[in-house]
Amino acid sequence: MHINDRGTDRAVQTPTTPARRDQRFSAQTSLRDVMSRFATGVTVLTAGGEYGHGMTANAFNSVSLEPPLVMCCVSRTARMHESITSAGSFAVSILADEQRDLARYFADRGRPRGLAQFDGVDCRRGPHTDAPLLEGSLAWLECELVDVYGGGDHSIFLGEVLSSIRGNDSRALLFCGGQYHLIDAPDRRSAL
């Protein structure tokens, strides 16, 4: 928006060429730095099958209640990208505060590849996707992959929820400013 000399707002449409956009963006704080100020929940995405894998992710959200759809964003260079694509499904474990170590583990690129990374992790196989579901989580979702959209250096995976299970009422694990934080679980009795 632009304020004109009369003090009223008016939309200004300025064509933006890729070179101009790059110049303007490089002069600003990086997107990563700005987005680190946005608090998000923490999940571990998992996929079963031949290329089974797990990955800590906070780029996850609900999309629709009818039909029940969720989305997650995964870098095209991440092992998880191939895992979801190959399996045609994925699962989501929404982490509780006491699962900080699991969040760190599934974010560590040095962990074993494939299903071996789940050895010693308390989990069970999802009945709909065969993807590992991490025990002690706040909730679990199993999803069938219904569409994939390009999103720059990431893909946006759209999944139809096949199963959703609520877990315990522990504190939620949050991520903000490059650190894990906690928030108390809402008291259902005080809900409107």
TrEMBL record:
- Is this entry keyworded Oxidoreductase? yes
Q: Which Gene3D superfamilies match?
A: Electron Transport, Fmn-binding Protein, Chain A
Pfam families in alphabetical order: Flavin_Reduct
Where do the segments described as Disordered lie?
A: 1-24
Coiled-coil segments on the chain, per record: none
Reading the lineage from the top rank, the first entry is Bacteria
Could you cite one Gene Ontology molecular function of this protein? riboflavin reductase (NADPH) activity
Assigned keywords, A-Z: Oxidoreductase
Answer yes or no on keyword Oxidoreductase. yes
**Start and end residues of each Flavin reductase like domain:** 35-182
- InterPro entries for the chain: Flavin_Rdtase-like_dom (IPR002563), NADH-dep_flavin_reductase (IPR050268), Split_barrel_FMN-bd (IPR012349)
Q: What is an annotated GO biological process for this record, any one?
A: pyrimidine nucleobase catabolic process
This chain's protein is named NADH-FMN oxidoreductase RutF, flavin reductase (DIM6/NTAB) family
Say which species the protein is native to. Actinopolyspora righensis
